[in-house]
Amino acid sequence: MKRLLFIPLFLILFTSLSTAQTLNEDQLQQRVREVSKTLRCAVCQSESVWESNAELAIQMRDIVRERLIQGESPDQIRAYFVSRYGDYILLKPRAFGLNLLLWGGPFLLLIIGGTFLFRTLRKWVAETAPASPEELSPIDEKSRRRIEQEIRGLEPDK
How many other C-beta atoms lie within 10 A of the C-beta of residue 50? Predict the structure, then answer.
């Protein structure tokens, strides 16, 4: 009778251990994906290590996996790849040093361009403002007769 009680207990314990192993594998795979998506494939154009099917990308994913199993953090793994390939390997450049120019440069150019455009448009509008009636010179008699003659030429014959 005691043996019959141990069998369900053994099955429950075995099932929970195999499920725990699967969860750990899923979590590891998710962490590999998260780190691999931040690394650039050194062979491909604009693809992450996770998206690429190149041999080098597969090897890099394996290295990421091994280092995560060894207990390294994602930042330590990225630092390892930066030490081997330089900042180029990061899909998102770090925000320090000259990289700050990459982050802030577009906004700085937008502000400078917007200011230049605003000043130029304001200058154009000021130069092409319609003249007031007082500023207009009166038309001379010769021009007035010619305008009247032209208008009469446009009227349909009666």
Answer: 18
Dig out the tokens for 137 from the structure. Answer: 């010179």
Chain segment 9-50, per-residue pLDDT in tens: 454 545 444 444 455 888 999 999 999 999 999 888 889 999
Q: Chain centroid to CA 127: how far?
A: 40
Residues 96-106 as b/e (b if ≥16 CB within 10 A, e otherwise) read eeeeeeeeeee
DSSP string computed for 78-147: HHHHHHHH-GGGBSS--SSTTHHHHHHHHHHHHHHHHHHHHHHHHHHHHHTPPPPTTTSPPPPHHHHHHH
Furthest CA-CA distance within the chain: 130
Name the phi and psi angles at 39, rounded to 5.
-105, 140
Q: Which residue, 65, 28, 35, 30, is CA-closest to 49?
A: 35
Q: What is the pTM of this model?
A: 0.54
User: Given the structure tokens 């990289």, which residue do they identify?
Assistant: 99
Angle formed by the axes of helices 74-85 and 55-69, to 10°? 140
Tokens in use for 147? 């305008």
Backbone angles phi, psi at 40, to 5 degrees: -85, 140
